[in-house]
Amino acid sequence: MGWAETIDRGLQSRRQADAYRQRRAIIDGNHRLLEYQGRRYINFSSNDYLGLARDPRLIAAWQQGAARYGVGSGGSGHVTGYGAEHEALERRLAGWLGYDRALLFTSGYAANQGIIGALTGTGDRILADRLSHASLLEAAVQSPAHLRRFAHNDAAALARLARPDAAGNLLAVTEGVFSMDGDSAPLPAIGRVISDAGGWLLVDDAHGFGVIGEQGRGSAWAQGIHPELLVVTFGKAAGVGGAAVLCAAPVAEYLVQFARHLIYSTALPPAQVAAIDAALSAIIQGDGLRARLGENIARFRAGAADLGYPLGQSATAIQPLLVGDNALALRLTERLRERGCWLTAIRPPTVPPGNARLRITLTAAHQRADIDRLLEALDNARRTA
Ligand SMILES: Cc1ncc(COP(=O)(O)O)c(C=O)c1O
C-alpha cells in the first residue's frame, strides 16, 4: 500500500465512523461570544474557566513583557531561553503550592511526555486511570515501562495491579479533574494505595488548577494530598498557555538532566511568562470569579436535570451530556448552533466507542441569560435532532 492509499483509507475510515475532525477558523474563540462565518454564538466550548484570557491585567503584563523582552525566548532553557522571569515564576509556583521546585514547560502535553519519558524505563510499571488524557497515555505507551490501565477512579482496581513486591519503579497516573467527564479523582485513596505499594503518584490537574480548592490551588490541595509529581497547565483557568511540574528538588534536577521536552525545545517566551505570572495573581485573588463559575454550574445542572438530561458526576466547569451515538451528537450540536449556542461533539477516539457526548464548558464569564439560553436550546434540540 502506497502513501496516497494510506492517507485515503485513513480519511475514509474517519468519515464512515462520523468521526471526521474539522477545524474551524473562529473569531474570538477565547471569548464569551465567538463569531463564525459572520454569526455570533455563546461560547460553551472554551476552557478559559475564569475568563482570564481577555483580562486586562494579563494583557498588560504580556504587552509590557513584550516591550521589555521582545517576543521570543531565543532558545532552549538549557541554552539561553531561561531567564530571571522563568526562575521567579518557578519559585513563586513552588512556594504557593508547597513544593521544593517547579519546572516550566511549553505545554501540558510536553510536560506529560517529558516527565513520563524521563522517569520511566525498562522494568518499571505505569498504572494509569483508563480515562487519562492522551498526553499521559501516549507517553505511557511510548515508554519502555509496562503499562496497565485501571478502571476509572477505582482505587481498589489500582490496588489489584499495584503489587509492592514486583521489581522496578511504580508510577500511578491520574487527573485531578477528568477532561472529558469533569469528575474528580479520589486522590487520597489512590495516593494511599500507591504509596503503600512503594510507588509514586503523578496527578495532572490541568482542569482543577485555578478553579478548585483554596485560592484555586487545585484538586490535590483541596483533597489534602501532596503527589510526588503534580502537573498544572496555564492554557485553561489561567487563560494563557504553558505548564509546570511541581516536585521535590532531586526530581527537578533529574528532569533538568533527562526530560527531552525541556532540553530540545525553545523555552516559553518571557513575555508569556509575565502573563502567566499575572494570571497567578488573578487566580489567587479570584474568589469572586470562582463563585460566579460555581453559580453558573449550579444553574446549568439544575436546569438540565429538570429537562431530564442525564447528567454525569461532574461538579466542575466541564459538564458532559452523554449521547452515545456519533451521528446524534453531531445533529444535536448542529441544532444547538442554529439556536446560537456553540459547543463541541466529542467522539471516539477521544472518548471510548459508544460514548459520544456534548462537552459543555461553563465559565465565570457566562451570564445567567446565557445559561438559560443553552437550556432552552437543549430542550428544543432534543425534540428536533
Ligand atoms: C488533562 C489534560 N492534560 C494535559 C493537557 C494538555 O495541556 P496543553 O493544552 O497545555 O498542552 C490537556 C489539554 O487538553 C488536558 O486536558
Give, in order, the helices and strands.
HEEHHEHEHEHEHEHEEHHHHEHEEEH
Strand residue percentage? 15-25%
Which ions and ligands are bound to the chains? pyridoxal-5'-phosphate
The total of helices stands at 14
| Alpha-carbon Rg, integer | 21 Å
Helix content: 40-55%
Structural class: alpha/beta
Runs with pLDDT <50, length 5+? Answer: none
Average of per-residue pLDDT values: 96
Side-by-side strand order of the widest sheet: 3-9-8-7-6-4-5
Which architecture name of the largest domain does CATH use? 3-Layer(aba) Sandwich
The CATH topology of the largest domain comes to Aspartate Aminotransferase, domain 2
Oligomer: single chain
Please report the first level of CATH classification, the CATH class of the largest domain.
Alpha Beta
Shape: globular
Tell me what the structure shows:
It is built from 14 helices and 13 strands. With 385 residues, the chain is α/β, with parallel strands linked by helices. The protein has a 7-stranded mixed β-sheet, with helices on both faces. Strands 1-2-11 form a 3-stranded mixed β-sheet. Helix 8 links the parallel strand 7 (200-204) and strand 8. The longest helix has 21 residues, at 287-307. The radius of gyration is 21 Å and the shape is globular. The two termini are 40 Å apart. The protein binds pyridoxal-5'-phosphate (PLP). Pyridoxal-5'-phosphate binds at residues 107-109, 112, 133, 135, 175, 179, 204, 206, 233, 235, 243.
